[in-house]
Description:
Elements: E1 7-13, H1 17-29, E2 33-39, H2 42-51, E3 56-60, H3 68-78, E4 84-88, H4 93-101, E5 106-109, H5 116-145, H6 155-172, E6 176-184, H7 186-193, H8 195-209, E7 218-221, E8 226-231, H9 236-252, E9 254-257, E10 260-263, E11 265-273, H10 280-296, E12 302-304, H11 310-331, E13 334-343, E14 351-360, E15 366-367, H12 369-378, H13 382-402, E16 411-416, H14 427-438, E17 445-450, H15 451-456, H16 458-470, E18 474-480, E19 497-500, H17 502-505, H18 512-527, E20 531-534, H19 540-549, E21 553-554, E22 563-564, H20 567-572
Parallel strand pairs: 1-2, 1-3, 3-4, 4-5, 11-12, 14-16, 16-17, 17-18, 18-19, 19-20, 20-21
Antiparallel strand pairs: 6-8, 6-11, 7-8, 9-10, 13-14, 13-21, 13-22, 14-15
Amino acid sequence: MEPAQQTLKLLLIEDSEDDAILLVRELEKSGFKLWVKRVASLQGLNEALASHPWDVIINDYNIPGFDSLHGLKTIRELDSDVPLIIVSGAIGEEVAVEAMRLGANDYIMKDKLTRLVPTVQRELAEAERRRALRQAEATIHHMAYHDSLTGLVNRVEFEQRLKHALNSAKTSDNHHVLLYLDLDQFKVINDTCGHMAGDELLRCLTIDLHRYVRSRDTLARLGGDEFGVLLDNCPLDRAKQIAESIRESVQQFRFVWEDKSFGVGVSIGLSVIDSNSRSVEEVLIAADMACYAAKDLGRNRIQLYSPDDANLNRRQVEMQWASRISQAVQDGRMLLYEHPIVALNGAGPINYREFLIRMVDDDGTIILPNAFIPAAERYNMMATVDRWVIEQVFRQLAGERNNSQHDQTDVVAFVNLSATSLSDEGLLEYIHNQLEENQITPEMICFEITETAAITDFANALKFINQIRRQGCRFALDDFGSGMSSFSYLKRIPIDIIKIDGGFVKNMCNDAMDREVVKAITQIAHVCGIKTVAEHVQNDKTMQMLQTIGVDFAQGHAIELPKASNTHFKNAAGIS
């Protein structure tokens, strides 16, 4: 900035009025507009420093009765940035060095005042640079420990404060409580109005939540729609009252966006922090488990963690499974299994097979999917699992093609997708890239989801199925017949294959109702041009009945048990 545009607050430590006039005149000649105060004692200096912030301080070092070194210390203790320039008639080199050490920015002899203006300009620029740097550092520090959307403490800082609370509970027998908040129906607002609306809701709720948090407590944003409250030195009964006030406030909160009004709720988990608490992780897990138990019990409620609660214990087991799944994927301890699907009545290609996933435990035990998939679904890990399966199946098919194990025109590989994958925005592109990378003919792939998953998220299911079939892949509905309105969806969902729910198949020889259901599904599917696969075929008698009815394919233990795909994948998982 040009000097003519600046108005400087100048503090002069000078006993000579004539010298002060010379200094001011020198600065004003260069365009500075000055607001000046002159002092000549330590008392006057202290009063001036207390009354105003100063842009620049000029100090005559040799004032009778004035300890300039003490004055320098006083100035720097109050303001580390203000430019401080010594102007003196005579000053020794040792004294000048000591003055610079104590915080003076420069010194000028009174007979060389032509240096004054350039020195002031330079030091003003340096002071501004220091202030800007410190502000940037403060901003970076704040960003590292605070959420950018709400301004609340973030998870990193919150865990540090939990650590301090835990230490105080152990050393001073203090008693704290952690609240874990998860908003109910937040996804509805995000999906209906977009993320801008969701962000605005979170900002508004943050303001509302502050009303119920005491000054010594900590409110933090832990995730997308998850918050934490650390109630410092708070009895459990009082913590429950605070949690209930928060729950009622959120329930009564109305959010309006573009003339639409929305209500939300909140599920709150409580965990106690006392001398028996072992770690920050344990306290967080306990509160998280209690929060999800509140959701399982109907949402918009409060749940206190208790180690004897059966629902919470189940939740803890699922959380442990989630950790084991993540580690198994990382360690290469997932396996592909395949289960053949045979043609009845000479229908279709001979090499239909469904690919299945297994997990290898630390001790080499093969774990079936029904043990770990529920945890993967609850903890949003199915996208990782599904992508792993897709990649491995495509690689295996490419390897078989290169080894000429199968005539590729006779191959159809069934690959299961979870319900959550239907809303995975990047999955279609991932599949496309895998098809190209492995040079797989799309018609060789038949993705399948359960009928329940398709009905539950019908819009996403329909969109996904249409897009995946446009890529050339086939699509199947698994466990068909389990829904209340199964047949009504056949006109609306463009599928290639129906897999008849094994619950109807396995006992159809002894149950006329099951047999008629299988027959009806088969007849209606054929009218729609859809092939049928009977699951859970357990004996030859059932196979013969399915042939008579006209079912196209069969799958089950009567044909063959699922088996590990090939040696390459078994060795990759570390087993023989």
